[in-house]
Amino acid sequence: MGSSAKLFGIMSDGIAIDTFELINKNGMCLSVINYGATITSLKIPIGKNKSVDVVLGFDNLKAYLESFNLKSAPYLGATVGQYAGRINNGIFELNGKLFHLNKNNNNHSLHGGNLGFSNAVWAIKNRSHGENPSITLRFNCQNNYENYPGDLTVELTYTLSEENELVIEYNATSTEDTIVNLTHHSYFNLNGHHSDVSNQELYINSNQILEATNENIPTGNYLNLTNSTYDFSSFKECPTQIDTTFVLNKEQELAACLISPKNKLKMAVYTDQPAVHVYVGGNCEAIKGKENVLYHSLSGICFETQNFPDAPNHKHFPSAVLKKNESYKHKTIYKFEIL
Fold it and tell me: Where beta-D-galactose is bound, by residue (predicted)?
């Protein structure tokens, strides 16, 4: 029970990347590297001397670095920012001024651009041991990083609770008005990262999705889900392909649930954010993952709790503006239990 650290790899500029392990009293074990504040492993105890690693990842730093050179980077386990999701044409207006972001997805900016927070080396601010072990990482983002305004300071804390919760808390401040939308990008698989999610059951606490173009840019319209293929208000099998932003019902913080009938394991996702972007398929095709496992399009499912994609360009969407010297806060919990 507690935490430990060891070398994970060396960047080309000589910076050391470490892996940090947190273990709670139940044997739940989290591994995090300070490259991209990335979760590489999350092992959940499911029986006597038995656990399952429920997230996809790589065994070494080189594989993480090379994954961002792929045609479509998978962002395995990464922290995503400065803005999760797409910004239409890489342009937004703030205080009467147009900002032109770097474009890395067709003609759009995705997940922060070419050098988002997923590619950054984060500093370790704090680690706690004993009950509810945690680690806090910090990234200082300079003004005009990927053409976003303001010096942005982000702190991210991962905590393993004694109730088998992975708690993720973000806090950010800026020296200038800016836009912020952070999320976590683990691909979950309750049968283990070597398996597939097709026979797992999915629930999403939503009655609406954001309508999107064929390049996945929100049109500004909401689509009702009643009796549609996107209606997961009762448990259904995981879809084989989905890349959709669900508008969460505000009366409760439960965003989604995933159940493995095989392992009798349930993961419930709680958040204070207005949406969860659910993603299965595509980016993980034929990627060699940890333990020499060949990942495929059904290897995992993402629950990206966040604000709406392209919110700065839609006045009726929840505001993504972080005012100078104010604080951005975001909390998401992934809770695991045996059924």
Answer: 185-187, 243
Count Cα atoms within 13 angstroms, Cβ side, for 87: 28
Q: pTM value?
A: 0.97
- Report DSSP letters for 97-151, one per residue: EEEEPPP-BTTBEETTSTT-GGGSBPEEEEEE-SSS-EEEEEEEEPTTGGG--S-
Distance separating alpha carbons of residues 314 and 85, to the nearest angstrom: 14
Does the pLDDT value for residue 308 go beyond 70?
A: yes
**Residues identified as active-site:** 185, 304
**CATH code for position 188:** 2.70.98.10
Residues marked as binding? Answer: 185-187, 243
83-137 confidence digits (pLDDT tens): 999 999 999 999 999 999 999 999 999 999 999 999 999 999 999 989 999 999 9
Q: How confident is the model over 74-82, as a mean pLDDT?
A: 97
- Annotated binding-site residues for beta-D-galactose read 185-187, 243
Residue 1 within any structural domain of the chain: no
Q: Print the domain residue range for 331.
A: 6-338
Using the predicted structure, report yes or no on whether residue 3 has a pLDDT greater than 80.
no
Q: Residues 247, 274: contact at Cβ < 8 Å? A: yes
Do the domain assignments include residue 264?
yes
208 belongs to a structural domain: yes
Average of per-residue pLDDT values in the chain: 96
On the question of pLDDT at 36 being above 70, the answer is yes
Domain count of the chain?
1
| 290 falls within a domain | yes
